[in-house]
Amino acid sequence: MPSATPPADPSSIDEFEDGNTQLLKRGGRNGYWFTSAGNPDDALAMITAPVNAQLIVAPEPAGDANDTKKAAHVVATAISPDDGAHAELGVNFVNPASGETLAPAYPDAGTYIGISFRARVGDDAAETTQVIRFAVPTTETAADSDHYAKDVTVTQEWEQYFVQWADADFMQQGFGAEATFSAAEATGLQFKLVSPAESLDLWVDDIAFIPAAQ
Question: Does residue 72 sit within a domain?
């Protein structure tokens, strides 16, 4: 008698094994990944096989068979963050309603304590270490984009990163209106280059909500 298929993990946001740019359709999520840059022509996001499968050596989440074959790869050039230019990879948890431009809140995010992901800098990057700002937009910070965020230093080795809502360094940057973070008002997530670099070459994979301890 064939074994039953295990239920899909609702905490998994995207692992890119399906090869497309839509989130895993779980828990009501249906958003699509997008790129943004100072000059939109400079940014290109691709879902492709890893640059070098042998480099996927970071610890995997418990129970993962470590057989990932695809990841999200975002490349942007001619960036000058000091001049106000930017490059980022982002996603809305839920697509905006017809006729709306802003994404709605995703209340289920409030049942988790944070988000984890794996990342590395690309082999062809001019800078082998890049500081990436991982941000979580909410309905309250949508107006001025001063989202709660945490900066992480990413190298050319796969590593797993954990961002918890309660982290002391998960904070606004101070250029917008002060807001109180509410995960239940979260609308999506963003990976943004903040280190002084002329290009962004970032791989991300295995993005998931962090469940509260049982």
Answer: yes
